[in-house]
Amino acid sequence: MVWSRAALAHRRRTLGTCPYCGGRGHRTGATAARPATRAGLVAVAALVPYTALKTLWALGVTPGYTGTGRPGVDPRYTSDLGIRLYDHGIDVTAVLALLGMALALALTRPWGRRLPRLPLLALGWTGAGALAPFGAFLAALGLLAWTGAITVGMADHAPWVVAVAYGGFCGYGLALARATRAYQRATRRACGRCGTAVTSASTGGA
Question: What's 168-198 look like in SS3?
Fold first, then answer.
């Protein structure tokens, strides 16, 4: 055990990294925060088209919809509460999108550091893993329908609705993954020698 730790420390010195944690030194807060902040803003921007569209539909304005009735709400799949809220101009999925924006900002803004770490990480990784591939599928489906290559079962919706509004889930998922990764790194405990954020595994349990 002692020999393995000594060998690991020697290898880290050879590579020019911290012999205690393997890190390359402390990054300043401003330098480390910039990519995370951008990721949070990209995630928010990716959900704006969907949120705006669903809100307009709930208010009775129906861009991208050519059918009859009300788009965005199906009594077969929407609860009574959801229908009542929709009648007053509030779409439940738009509210969920706003919560998704808040999550992205919590992962990248200073005020988010006051919130519990594990729930934020769980929400961040779960949301990224679910929405990135789902959004990519919808974006591809919408683009193919837009070009006339295929037809989708949404004849009363303009193809751009699927490609732009729903496809934005992919951009959100990818940006959320970046934001979650940055948050996970930034909230690890710091190495007492070099200041690099580390986990107990990287120090060999020391």
Answer: HHHHHHHHHHHHHHHHHHHCCEECCCCCCEE
Neighbour-count burial for 179-201, b at 16+ CB within 10 Å, e otherwise: bbbbbbebeeeebeebebbbeee
Mapping DSSP to helix (H, G, I), strand (E, B) and coil, where does residue 103 land? helix
DSSP H/E element including 100: helix 92-108
Q: Could you tell me if 60 and 91 are in contact, meaning their C-beta atoms sit under 8 angstroms apart?
A: no
Computed on alpha carbons and rounded to an integer, the radius of gyration of the chain in Å comes to 23
Question: What's the pTM?
Answer: 0.74
The encoded tokens of residue 61 equal: 């304005």
pLDDT tens profile 99-123: 999 999 999 999 999 999 999 999 9
